[in-house]
Write a structure and sequence with these properties.
The chain is an alpha/beta fold and 241 residues long. The chain has a single domain, classed as Alpha/Beta hydrolase fold, catalytic domain (Rossmann fold, 3-Layer(aba) Sandwich), CATH 3.40.50. It is 39% helix and 23% strand. The protein is built from seven helices and eight strands; from the N terminus they run αβββαβαβαβαβαβα. It has an eight-stranded mixed beta sheet with strand order 1-2-4-3-5-6-7-8, with helices on both faces. Helix 5 links the parallel strand 6 and strand 7. Helix 2 crosses helix 7 and helix 3 crosses helix 4.
Length: 241
């Protein structure tokens, strides 16, 4: 009896492992040449039919893997996803160059729109910390960018100042600004940016002090992920008949 029970347990573990393996999304490793020739590295999660897409940009000193908690919710909502390593970080490497990094955003947006099952009119950007500043600036600079979601942006990170880009460049579009009350620099920034914006702006402040993708904790993760996905779904244009 003990042997039979053990065999049943092992069989269940094997089946369970197989199901998990089948459900896990397998990204395509992408290498794209920046304007200066640097090889930019990212993970692309495609779809089997035409879909909206999202570009993800991480925090300072981090990498594209920080977005893992958001990948499945985005895929489940029907989005193709591109998570990238900023220049100077992760597998992209090289040196920090924030002026060049703003150009890299456009390089990635252009690449996304060229993918067979990506709807070119339905591409948005999400970023955290300095990636949030790049998100707001990059979306403002790209007239086709649908909406921007910024986790813990600042008024000035490494010379990247997004306020005027939101005020002018996104005046006919939208942005969702998220920060924690205890993260003073970011909480001041989102209030200031929202106050000067002329387009549609969503503002969410949480208690505590987590910064950027550090909000993906048991206390906040479900609420933050739902907020992001709901915002994207609400603002992504429907397929034209």
């Amino acid at each position: 009896m003990r042997i039979r029970t053990l065999m049943i347990v092992m069989l269940l573990l094997i089946v369970t492992s197989y199901v998990f393996a089948q459900d896990a999304a397998e990204p395509q490793l992408v290498e794209v040449a920046a304007a200066d020739g640097l090889a930019l590295i990212g993970d692309f999660y495609g779809t089997d039919s035409p879909a909206p897409a999202v570009l993800l940009m991480h925090m300072y000193g981090r990498s594209r893997g920080d977005w893992e908690p958001l990948i499945s919710p985005l895929l489940d909502a029907g989005y193709a996803v591109l998570a990238v390593d900023l220049r100077g970080f992760g597998e992209t490497g090289s040196n920090e160059d924030w002026e060049a990094a703003t150009g890299d955003v456009q390089t990635w947006l252009d690449w996304l729109r060229q993918q067979p099952n990506v709807r070119p009119e339905a591409v948005s950007i999400i970023g955290a910390s300095i990636g949030a500043n790049l998100t707001l600036i990059g979306c403002a600079n790209d007239e086709q960018c649908v909406t921007a979601v910024a986790l813990s942006p600042g008024l000035n990170y490494q010379g990247l100042e997004p306020e005027t880009f939101v005020t002018d460049g996104l005046r006919e579009r939208s942005a969702l600004l998220i920060a924690a009350q205890g993260d003073r620099e970011s909480s001041v920034a989102v209030k200031t940016i929202a106050g000067s914006a002329r387009g549609e702006v969503g503002l969410q402040l949480y208690t505590g002090s987590p910064h950027g993708t550090a909000m993906f904790t048991p206390r906040l993760q479900d609420r933050v992920l739902k907020l992001i996905v709901d915002w994207l779904v609400e603002h992504t244009p429907a397929v034209e008949a």
